[in-house]
Amino acid sequence: TGGRPPMEGSFRLAVDQGGVVSSIELTAAFDSGVVDGGAGDLTMGVCWADNAYRADDFAVHGSFYNSGVVGSTACRAPGVVQTIPLHELAMEAAAEAVGLPADAVREANLYATGDAALCGVTVGENGFNWNLPAMWQSAKARWEVAARREQVEAFNRSNRWRKRGLRMVPVKYGIEDNGGAYKEGCSLGVLADGSVRLAHGGCELGQGIHTKAAQAAAFALGCPLGGVSVSDTSSLATPGSADTGGSATSECVVKAVLDAAETLNARLLPFRPAAGAAGEGAWEATVKAATDAGVSLAASGWFGGGAPP
Whole-model pTM? Predict the structure, then answer.
């Protein structure tokens, strides 16, 4: 991606003996190099700087400056990967100041449903599903955090030079419908030998969108995953699809794949074996029977915008 721009950060905060942070001020300055690309990192970095924490008095100051180095080109979550660690560093400092475990301080400051967050967001309302506190409690129990911490502390007491640590860190990354901008198409075809050819409107950037689309097709059609291949992205195959971004394109593509698979399943239904009779080779036999009967096994699918699935 060309890397992320360097960021200089600082913080000031007020914390009580119970670990509750009542006031926090974050300052972040991004080095944009010889270009102005740091503006995007600055915008998202500021809007996500609160991470998962509330404070009665919260302020974040952001800026970017130019220097004589090559500019960076952050590809995903620009700026966020820098400002969230800055806030986490502040939480570590708060915990050290009052002598509490860092996990306890983080838990004491988590947003609750109804809290006002940055950029006009109300946590847990207006389509935002706030399940992080429940996930936090579940994770502590399933991962046996308390028992593991005792083991870590026992190890540290017994070893002068080697030390171990244990931390739980939450991450809040909001996704919304972007004004209905999410629109993704899919073209799905089954060949006579049972193999499946799939094309969709998203771009594979290393996020695994091709794999997710192939898995969705195999699951919905009941065919072997190894027989599903994904074509290179082309607007000729899926015209009208939106750009890839906003951390929800994969889910929208999957919905389009499921839409196309629903059409194909309706056409294949008369040729499928009876329930309980399916076994090895059943998929290929179903496809052959449908093909011999002249049934079209090509379909298109569409996710037409709105909130991400």
Answer: 0.75
